[in-house]
């Protein structure tokens, strides 16, 4: 989607380095209440030139210096560990749901690379690039059904790269009237994409025969994470949302690795 020069976000001071984390958090809360495609966080938000146009490399890498990734990871871990995680566990017990996946046998490649890249591309790349996303979606959805591997990743990357090259060569973009309609529908699109991302994770459970009304509570942690990831994708770029997703997933993997190697009795209990 073509982007014009956008004004600085409220509270941002061009050329003065990164703002306080509380400014990012306030912007996130405002965004969730009223999702909008603009303004993007200006490049001055992370030390660049404010209002500078963003190109392809900036879409993937330009936002990584802006958001306080570690701060967001800690916030999401805290919310999930102290509030949403225990609630989801209680709902699982009450409804008879059991996890399908054994976390102890998941690979780092699957959890920290494959899942963040594929899920962000499926559910959030199209938030700002709806036209090419429609062409890429069949390949990306197929990737969700594949067994994670380097060979599968290479084939998906080649297929997506070929599609992107053809679209760029043909100068493919939506007509202006379609873009205007999309901008108007964006709040609904954003929240539906977030809900779809959350409900996808119901596939991680063997669902019980009772308590179906409680099942949405099983994926409250993914819903909350999806809101933050969607905000970060829109404000900073797809690279930033993939990085946050990967860092968030890496925490439980690291904890399990520590327990396996240093306190296996806790896992057996």
Overview of the structural elements:
The protein has 269 residues and is mainly alpha-helical. It has one domain. Helices cover 64% and strands 1% of the residues.
Q: Largest beta sheet, briefly? A: 2 strands, antiparallel
Q: Would you identify the regions where 5 or more consecutive residues have pLDDT less than 50? A: 1-15, 44-53
What's the β-strand tally? 2
| SSE run | HHHEHHHHEHHH
**Number of H/I helices:** 10
Protein name: CAAX prenyl protease-like protein
Organism: Pigmentiphaga kullae
InterPro entries: Rce1/LyrA-like_dom
GO molecular function: peptidase activity
Topology diagram in text:
Elements: H1 21-33, H2 56-62, H3 69-95, E1 98-99, H4 108-123, H5 130-144, H6 150-170, H7 176-200, E2 205-206, H8 220-236, H9 238-262, H10 264-268
What's the quick description here?
With 269 residues, this protein is an all-alpha fold. It has one domain (59-257). It is 64% helix and 1% strand.
Features:
269 residues, mainly alpha, two-stranded antiparallel ribbon, 2 strands, disordered N terminus, Rce1/LyrA-like_dom, transmembrane, peptidase activity, hydrolase, transmembrane helix
């Amino acid at each position: 989607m073509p982007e014009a020069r956008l004004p600085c976000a409220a509270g941002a001071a061009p050329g003065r380095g990164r703002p306080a984390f509380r400014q990012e958090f306030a912007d996130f809360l405002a965004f969730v209440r009223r999702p909008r495609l603009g303004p993007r966080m200006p490049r001055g938000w992370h030390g660049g030139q404010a209002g500078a146009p963003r190109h392809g490399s900036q879409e993937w890498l330009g936002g990584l210096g802006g958001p306080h990734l570690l701060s967001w990871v800690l916030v999401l871990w805290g919310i999930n560990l102290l509030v949403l995680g225990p609630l989801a566990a209680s709902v699982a017990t009450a409804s008879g749901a059991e996890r399908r996946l054994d976390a102890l046998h998941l690979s780092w490649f699957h959890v920290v690379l494959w899942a963040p890249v594929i899920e962000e591309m499926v559910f959030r790349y199209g938030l700002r690039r709806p036209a090419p996303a429609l062409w890429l979606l069949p390949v990306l959805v197929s990737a969700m059904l594949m067994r994670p591997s380097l060979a599968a990743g290479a084939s998906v990357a080649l297929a997506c790269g070929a599609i992107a090259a053809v679209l760029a060569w043909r100068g493919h973009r939506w007509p202006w009237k379609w873009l205007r309609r999309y901008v108007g529908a964006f709040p609904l699109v954003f929240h539906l994409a977030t809900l779809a991302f959350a409900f996808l994770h119901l596939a991680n459970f063997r669902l019980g025969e009772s308590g179906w009304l409680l099942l949405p509570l099983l994926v409250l942690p993914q819903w909350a994470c999806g809101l933050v990831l969607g905000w970060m994708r829109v404000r900073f770029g797809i690279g930033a949302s993939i990085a946050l997703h990967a860092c968030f997933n890496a925490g439980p993997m690291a904890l399990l690795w520590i327990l396996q190697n240093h306190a296996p009795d806790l896992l057996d209990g």
